[in-house]
């Protein structure tokens, strides 16, 4: 399954938004002779670009760093990087929220990719900060946190 994704979908991908664990898994599947090699996150992004992605937004949510470091790469290397306060909880749906927000800002609003990525990250961080726990599991992004809700709409 992963090999089909790599062969058929990555070359069609405008922007891939893996976290560091997902990037490592994709590269370990693609470069089996180097499986187990620990590259830098930048090297993982370079390898994903080499597999056909136009851009890679590599998210550092699973890294042991004081801040979450998200870097956007293209074939020209690092385009931009953002640092976000690491929130204390574990979230389900943060990557989906981020990928959807990038697509909405880039495709629907026509922003350049680096602007779309920054706006999407800001939106995602706000939804996580306002996240809630629906039961005993992980927190869920509150995707409606920035919307005015109520009867005051025209």
Describe the protein in words.
The chain is of the alpha+beta class. Helix content is 40%, strand content 15%. It contains 5 helices and 4 strands. A 4-stranded mixed sheet has the order 1-2-3-4, with helices on both faces. α2 crosses α3.
Percent of residues in helices: 25-40%
Number of helices: 5
SSE string, helices as H and strands as E: HEHHEEEHH
* Mean of residue pLDDT values: 90
Count the beta strands: 4
Q: What key attributes describe this structure?
A:
alpha+beta, 154 residues
Give a topology summary:
Layout: H1 2-9, E1 15-16, H2 20-30, H3 41-50, E2 55-58, E3 67-74, E4 77-85, H4 94-108, H5 113-129
Parallel strand pairs: 1-2
Antiparallel strand pairs: 2-3, 3-4
Helix pairs in contact: 2-3, 4-5
Please sum up the structure shown.
The chain is 40% helix and 15% strand. It contains five helices and four strands. Strand 2 (55-58) and strand 3 (67-74) form a beta hairpin.
